[in-house]
Amino acid sequence: MKRGKKFQDAVKKYNKQEVYTFEDGAKLVKELAFAKFDETVDFSVRLNLKKGQSVRDTLVLPHQFKGEKKILVFAKGAKAEEAKAAGAAYVGDSDLVEKIKGGWLDFDVAVATPDMMKDVGKLGPILGRRGLMPNPKTHTVTFDIKEAIAELKKGRTEYRSDKTGIVSVSIGKVSMDAAKLAENMAVVASEIERKRPADAKGDFVLSLAISSTMGPGVKVKKA
Asked: Over the stretch 7-21, which tens digit does the pLDDT of each residue have?
């Protein structure tokens, strides 16, 4: 892949083979960033996963950097009232299902009570492609609506391994302090290690790297 001059200049500023601590890696990524906007910082973890294995869950970073999400809740009766009281942006049942079928998607995350999933499941082709489908694995299919909304408002983030065994999580912005970026990295690394499959053998985490939206990758090592 051909890279621009600014990218090539950034690469010349450091040793690509050197492995840094979380904080030093964050400092370097901040120095290498060259875009005119506040670039997002991504943390990538390459895992040793066998065919059929995957890692998926949610976590809350200690230092948030995103605006508050618009939360939609599929629920009826008392649970719908609970969702409204907890601060959900949109609450409904069949009315919301029909609205989404019509093309409306003005929300960031969807939560559903288990009894609503028969109807919500019909939205699979629409929500699934956009990563908005409620799922028990990400704690977005639950009767504990109040707790789910509270966690999402704190900035709960979903992570999952791709087909190549890499988990990539956005951990902040270039404008953030390196120490805060490092703390966010440490939480992600710890949570992913916690999800190690029971039958995994050998080294589970193969490599770690951090990069900004436009900048080059920097290797980092487990704390």
From this structure: 988 889 999 999 999
